[in-house]
């Protein structure tokens, strides 16, 4: 198998993917220099009315939501005892770890003084702030995810003793992961509860933390399907029989769960709408966009998932997963940018600059490259031969 | 030291987050500090001369503006506070003609910025000002997201030490016993400085004395939980660019629910998940036990059956053997007796 790997890599040096990735990395490096020599103003379209742009809306909000596969999969496998999903845990944990690490990396661009990022934790705790909760959870959860990831690393390095110790911690780590994810996913939504005057009523709700948490489960389940689909072709030679045999079963199981959770999410969103009595906004322009989000990106994928599961049609499920992932991005964009500052005249609204888009692409590219580097070397899609049949 | 901070912070994640907030969330209200100072702005007196802007610029040693402060043409465009301008006067065309309104930090009693800041860079001083400590600011700009009055501004063009900039209520001058720069310079007494509780009385007196001149509302008395700067006006506040839909809930009240959920999640989730784990594990164990028992049962049953079969077969074989022996014996007897008693043999066969 190792022969296989090197053969593929030698071939792939000048692939279209590598060429595009290189261009993005160079562009990212240039913007990085501009950002840290000229300040935020030099590369972003942020202004006094719009302090948060796509570096928060995409890199942070979407990054965290789409990394939810880590806690959903490990909870399904270890807490709920669904052992057949075991082969999906490692790819999901790796994705979550990289996702969170990249969120922290991207934050270094967005905050004014990144060298002070540990100040809230170690210098002065602003415990009344929801952003403090976000920061604390990211810090702790990143640590938990790293420890959850280390067995793959230790197996690769042949460090059996310490690997076995970490494996014994699996359940405790999984529960900590779920606790931290619950808090952290929901606190991202809760960040906006402080600004009822700025966020459009259709998106503002006291239930924002709940909405964010429940939708993160949809995101997690869908991301596992979506990403399994993406990595299936390029990583196929690395996947062992267990992974491949369980793949379709996993897609069916996760698809069924996603259908139900999306339906539940739709229901609580309607309850939120009814609680605040915001029905009359549905006839406005924002209302139309809200309906697109709710019907096209929540109800439709829930329905597609249900059909796919009933007919055992993997293709439909995969499309539903892609739609849900896109829907999560739409939702987080709506809350952090589209419906935020809705009262401002259009001339004062935010639109991302090329510099911001470049950095976001840069961050995603780094993520894909690191994921490829790790999963082609460490036992992610297959079990290490020394540790088979252990669970 | 570091370790202690860290341990403290772990505790803070659970219990202490709930404490200061739940005190507020619990509906206990203590009102503003009695020493809280403030400023009352009277829109019927402001003539848009921009002297307050000039004073602010000088007192805070801010960079010179693009257009001079005596150039009143800037009033024709809508402006907001920014990193170089901590106060701004705008002109509004209202039902009663042109009205001018000054804006700056309102120094809320329960400031959104202070409650939102994750390093406590903002602090409501008991005598009024909401102070800002640039030495801990990380530059996350959540204060700007949180502020309902859109006041904090950021030094976006500063690469290394960007700060959040906003009116300080001239806290250093207050400490020296002086008036805030803008109040001191205002030629029309549109700005009145004093204890907040006195300002409310003054405002109410003016409204009562001239009911035709004023709208019956003191903006800032209750908005967002109350502010140190307050406004009275002759036209509805929405006509001079002030939002009337902010409500009376302070920013900490808005986020109290979400924060109060933290210790609940920390406490409940491990219990629930541990329970689910125990149940699923128990289910597995029972299923496994049942499987083992069923296999054992099946094995014994199969064994018994096999034995029975064997026994049956053996006994069948016995009978068959016996019969065969009998037949053989009979045959032998017949053969022996055949030549002698042929008649008797036929008789036997028939029976």
UniProtKB/TrEMBL annotation, chain A:
Annotated transmembrane regions: 12-34, 54-80, 92-109, 129-153, 165-184, 204-228, 249-268, 288-307, 319-342, 354-374
Cellular localisation: Cell membrane
Alphabetized PANTHER family for the sequence: FORMATE DEHYDROGENASE, NITRATE-INDUCIBLE, CYTOCHROME B556 FDN SUBUNIT, NI_FE-HYDROGENASE 2 B-TYPE CYTOCHROME SUBUNIT-RELATED
Keywords tagged on the record: Cell membrane, Membrane, Transmembrane, Transmembrane helix
Family: Belongs to the NrfD family.
Protein name per the record: Ni/Fe-hydrogenase cytochrome b subunit
Domain of life, source organism: Bacteria
Topological type in the membrane: Multi-pass membrane protein
TrEMBL record, chain B:
Pfam families given in the database record: Fer4_11 (PF13247)
Keywords assigned by UniProt, alphabetized: 4Fe-4S, Iron, Iron-sulfur, Membrane, Metal-binding, Repeat, Signal, Transmembrane, Transmembrane helix
Domain 4Fe-4S ferredoxin-type: 37-67, 128-157
Segments crossing the lipid bilayer: 258-279
Highest taxon of source: Bacteria
Compartments it resides in: Cell envelope
PROSITE patterns: 4FE4S_FER_1, 4FE4S_FER_2, TAT
Leader peptide range in chain numbering: 1-23
Major subcellular site: other
Protein name as it appears in the record: 4Fe-4S ferredoxin-type domain-containing protein
Species assigned in the record: Pseudodesulfovibrio sediminis
């Amino acid at each position: 198998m190792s022969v296989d790997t090197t053969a593929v890599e030698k071939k792939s040096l000048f692939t279209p993917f590598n060429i595009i990735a290189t261009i993005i990395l160079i562009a990212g490096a240039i913007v990085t220099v501009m950002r840290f020599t000229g300040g935020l103003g030099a590369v972003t379209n942020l202004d006094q009315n719009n302090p948060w742009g796509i570096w928060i809306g995409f890199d942070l909000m979407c990054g965290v939501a789409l990394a939810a596969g880590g806690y959903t999969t490990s909870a399904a496998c270890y807490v709920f005892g669904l052992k057949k999903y075991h082969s999906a845990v490692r790819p999901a944990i790796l994705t979550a770890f990289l996702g969170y690490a990249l969120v922290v990396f991207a934050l270094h661009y967005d905050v004014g003084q990144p060298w002070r990022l540990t100040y809230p934790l170690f210098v002065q705790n602003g415990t009344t702030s929801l952003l403090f909760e976000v920061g604390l959870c990211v810090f702790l959860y990143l640590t938990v995810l790293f420890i959850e990831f280390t067995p793959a690393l230790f197996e690769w390095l042949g460090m059996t003793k310490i690997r076995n110790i970490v494996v014994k911690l699996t359940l405790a780590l999984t529960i900590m992961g779920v606790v931290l994810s619950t808090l952290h996913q929901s606190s991202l939504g809760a960040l906006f509860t402080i600004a009822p005057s700025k966020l459009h009523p259709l998106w503002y709700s006291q239930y924002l933390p709940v909405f964010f948490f429940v939708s993160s489960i949809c995101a997690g389940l869908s991301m596992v399907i979506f990403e399994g689909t993406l990595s299936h072709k390029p990583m196929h030679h690395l996947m062992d029989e267990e992974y491949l045999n369980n793949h379709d079963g996993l897609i069916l199981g996760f698809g069924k769960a996603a259908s139900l959770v999306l339906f539940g999410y739709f229901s609580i969103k309607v309850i939120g709408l009814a609680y605040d009595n915001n029905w009359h906004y549905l006839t406005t322009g924002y209302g139309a966009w809200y309906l697109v989000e709710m019907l096209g990106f929540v109800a439709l994928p829930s329905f597609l998932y249900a059909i796919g599961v009933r007919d055992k049609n993997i293709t439909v499920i995969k499309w539903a997963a892609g739609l849900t992932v896109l829907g999560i991005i739409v939702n987080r964009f709506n809350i952090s940018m589209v419906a935020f500052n809705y009262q401002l005249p259009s001339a004062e609204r935010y639109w991302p600059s090329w510099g911001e888009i470049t950095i976001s692409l840069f961050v995603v590219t780094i993520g894909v490259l690191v994921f490829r580097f790790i999963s082609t070397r460490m036992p992610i899609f297959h079990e290490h031969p020394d540790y088979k049949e252990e669970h | 030291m570091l370790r202690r901070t860290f341990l403290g912070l772990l505790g803070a994640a659970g219990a202490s987050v709930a404490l200061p907030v739940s005190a507020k969330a619990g509906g206990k209200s203590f009102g503003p500090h009695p020493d809280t100072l403030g400023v009352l702005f009277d829109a019927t007196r402001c003539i848009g001369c921009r002297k307050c802007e000039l004073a602010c610029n000088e007192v805070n040693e801010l960079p010179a503006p693009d257009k001079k402060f005596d150039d009143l043409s800037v009033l024709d465009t809508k402006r907001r506070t920014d990193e170089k301008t901590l106060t701004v006067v705008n002109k509004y065309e209202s039902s009663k003609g042109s009205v001018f309104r000054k804006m700056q930090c309102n120094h809320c009693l329960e400031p959104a910025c202070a409650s939102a800041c994750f390093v406590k860079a903002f602090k409501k001083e008991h005598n009024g000002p909401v102070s800002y400590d640039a030495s801990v600011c990380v530059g996350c700009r959540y204060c700007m997201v949180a502020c309902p009055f859109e006041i904090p501004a950021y030094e976006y063009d500063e690469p290394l030490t960007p700060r959040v900039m906003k009116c300080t209520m001239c806290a250093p001058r207050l400490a020296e016993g002086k008036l805030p720069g803008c109040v001191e310079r205002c030629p029309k007494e549109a700005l009145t400085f004093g204890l907040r509780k006195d300002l409310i009385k003054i405002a109410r007196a003016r409204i009562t004395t001239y009911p035709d001149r004023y709208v019956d509302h003191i903006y800032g008395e209750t908005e967002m939980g109350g502010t140190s700067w307050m406004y009275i006006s002759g036209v509805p506040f929405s006509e001079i660019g002030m939002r009337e839909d902010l409500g009376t809930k302070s920013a900490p009240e808005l986020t109290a629910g979400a924060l109060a959920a933290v210790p609940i999640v920390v406490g409940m989730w491990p219990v629930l998940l541990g329970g689910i784990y125990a149940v699923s594990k128990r289910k597995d164990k029972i299923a496994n036990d049942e499987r083992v028992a069923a296999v054992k049962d099946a094995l014994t049953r199969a064994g018994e059956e096999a034995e029975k079969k064997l026994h049956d077969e053996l006994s069948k074989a016995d009978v068959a053997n016996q019969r065969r022996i009998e037949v053989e014996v009979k045959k032998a007897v017949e053969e022996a007796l055949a030549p002698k008693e042929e008649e008797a043999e036929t008789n036997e066969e028939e029976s």
